[in-house]
Amino acid sequence: MKKNVLVAQSGGPTAVINGTLRGIVEMCKAMPDHFGVVYAGFHGIEGVLKEELIDLSSQPDEEIALLSTTPAAGAIGTCRYKLEPHQQEDFERVIEVLKAHEIGYFFYIGGNDSMDTAHKIAVLAHERGLDLIATGGPKTIDNDVGDSERKLIDHTPGYGSVARYWALNVQNANCENEGSCPPDPVLVMQVMGRKIGYIPAAARLGDPQRELPLQIYMPEAGLNLPAMADLVNDELRRSKRVIVVVSEGFDVGSVGERHDSFGHIQYASSQTSVAQEVVNYLNSVGLTARGKARGQIAGVDQRTNMSYASTVDMEESYKLGQKAVEIALKDGNGYMSTILREPGPIYTVRYDKVPLELVANSERSFPKEWISESGVDVTDDFINYAMPLIGLSHPSVPLVNGLQRFARIERTFAPQKLSAYIPQELR
């Protein structure tokens, strides 16, 4: 007997998160003998708890297809709500909602914390004898899901697009810095990346031959503000200008930091910023060139800009969604779809599965051997790893009257069958 489907998203959005959603929805709709109605949790697990389920089966095929070129999470929403062991009422509510709407398949798209939620629901369903298959779909711009050896997953959807964003923006920044360097010799660019250096490292992809006065400051390098000032001034003596790419996790002390609901430090949305602290410090200690340091913060644009998205990332996110459905049918409960790189000089990948328990709350580190001896660059091995992920062409985003045509998912909710509920952490 076919069962209904529930898909949801959690955590920070990416340019290609909806590609995975599309892969899941279209794969389920293509097999009506196995799958019933496809629902989406409106704003992730919060929507599941509130019994706010969008009917995706009733959406026009055109709108579902447009998900691949629709960035961020506006289609069905996301959340930063984590199910903790003490939230037993929440767990009971999830089971009630799943039973009430005859859900037999649960797909959760997200990062390591989201895979933890999917794993907990998979375990709970098994313990309760519930006929439910829970499957994860990976997503994160930080590329921090899985193991540091990249045996569980080579890279996560979302990273290729943010890497391309910074490769192209370094080229743009160089034109700015080169033209205005007499009065503004130092351009400080803050990039996302709390504790891991994959995003700032991607700046090197914009200058793989190392022709620019570019310095990259990753949290793993262990540098501080005084060391930065010395390195910046050394480059100013050589080149008269320098582009400084600094991670939002660079150590400038605890000024202005705050934490999100997962406990992660957030700098970019604080009262101050890492970039501003760096600019202030460099200007206060003095530069060995005429002029001042200036700063630039991209903000959330780096994770939502569809015009800069990677076509490789778009294709892989879609196929990982399809693979998640295949896993649910063939392998059952408790897996995440994954992507693994094949050996050889030509970039090829294969899609596979990994137990959720191995990736739940996982957090890989940036390989130390990929950090240059100077501490402000990456090695060729990283370039060879990351360059294929950014693709060779611009994405084709549909335009109507000159404006981007994104998917329009109607908020058609399933009739609620349970009493109203407020999630425990929102009370």
What does this structure look like?
With 427 residues, this protein is an alpha/beta fold. The chain has 13 helices and 15 strands. The strands form four sheets. Strands 3-2-1-4-5-12-13 form a seven-stranded mixed beta sheet, with helices on both faces. The longest helix is centred in the middle third of the chain and has 22 residues. The protein is elongated and about 75 Å long. The protein starts with a strand and ends in a 23-residue tail after the last strand. The mean pLDDT is 93.
Mean pLDDT: 93
Largest sheet: 7 strands, mixed
Number of H/I helices = 13
Which class best fits the helix and strand makeup? Answer: alpha/beta
Gyration radius, rounded:
22 Å
